[in-house]
Design a protein that fits this description.
About 25% of the residues are buried. Strand 8 and strand 9 form a beta hairpin. Helices cover about 30% and strands about 15% of the residues. The strands form three sheets. Strands 2-1-6-5-7 form a five-stranded parallel beta sheet, with helices on both faces. The two termini are about 40 Å apart. The radius of gyration is 23 Å and the shape is elongated. The chain is α/β, with parallel strands linked by helices and about 250 residues long.
Length: about 250
């Protein structure tokens, strides 16, 4: 899989892309990455990529000409057309489901905005416009890395344990279960006995209930679309009702 990014600060990507899980996956050939400087496609001596907005207002907007030229030029660098992603507060909220959809692409191109945003006509180049949350960043570079990280983890061979991604939060629509490591007792807090029992069936059952409890406590909205058995639904109803009575949370 090939990831590419167009940015006015392309040098910010490499330290993260070359490190840890992404770095190892890249070395193994799971994916490749290239970043391009948007200023390459400017035509004035100042290499200007922004201008004042029509109608007045605060800040500067990214001009359409360099972005259009950059996207067209980068798209033609390989035979297969890239799936082009822009970022905007108006975009679709990025989710694990979208990450899985993107993991099926062969080539993804991120176009990273800066300043107060970009000329609205630029978005006609996008196959998808995403938002990673209801807050403002100084540019699209961090958002691109977030999406790339989430997608790479889903690619075959990216993780040391191929089953790791299956146990992550949101992989089945719920939050991941609580986890513990050594020591078994720490500052008066003990690891649940079932996790020390060696009974894999009981451990799996405990983890499922833990996942349900954590989801009910922190992201009850996820339960609306979760596939639950009748017993699991009764369990959710019980802990939700108990929480209403005593004001506690399930975890």
């Amino acid at each position: 899989m090939l990831f590419e990014a167009i940015s006015v600060i392309p040098e910010v990507f490499e330290p993260y892309v070359g490190a840890s899980i992404l770095g190892r996956a890249r070395k193994k050939g799971v994916f490749d990455f290239s970043a391009y400087d948007l200023r390459t496609w400017t035509h004035d001596r100042h290499r200007t990529v922004d201008d004042a907005p029509f109608g007045g207002g605060q800040g500067m907007l990214m001009k359409p000409q360099p972005i259009f030229e950059a996207v067209h030029a980068v798209s033609e660098m390989h035979e297969e057309k890239p799936y082009t992603i822009f970022f905007s507060p108006c975009g679709e909220t990025f989710t694990e489901e979208i990450a899985r959809e993107l993991s099926e692409q062969d080539r993804i191109l991120f176009v990273c905005g800066r300043y107060e945003g970009m000329d609205e006509r630029c978005y006609t180049l996008a196959d998808k416009v995403l938002s990673i949350g209801d807050y403002v960043l100084t540019g699209g570079e961090l958002a691109s890395l977030v999406v790339m990280d989430a997608v790479v983890r889903l690619l075959p061979g990216a993780l040391g344990d191929e089953k790791s991604a299956l146990d992550e939060s949101f992989s089945d629509g719920l939050l991941e279960y609580a986890q513990y490591t050594r020591p078994a007792s720490f500052e008066g807090m003990d690891v649940p006995d079932v996790l020390l029992s060696g009974d894999h069936g009981k451990v799996d059952a405990w983890r499922r209930r833990s996942s349900l409890e954590r989801t009910a406590a922190w992201r009850p909205d996820l339960l609306e679309d979760a596939e639950l058995t009748p017993d699991e639904q009764r369990f959710i109803d019980e802990i939700t009702e108990r929480g209403k009575r005593d004001g506690s949370t399930p975890c």
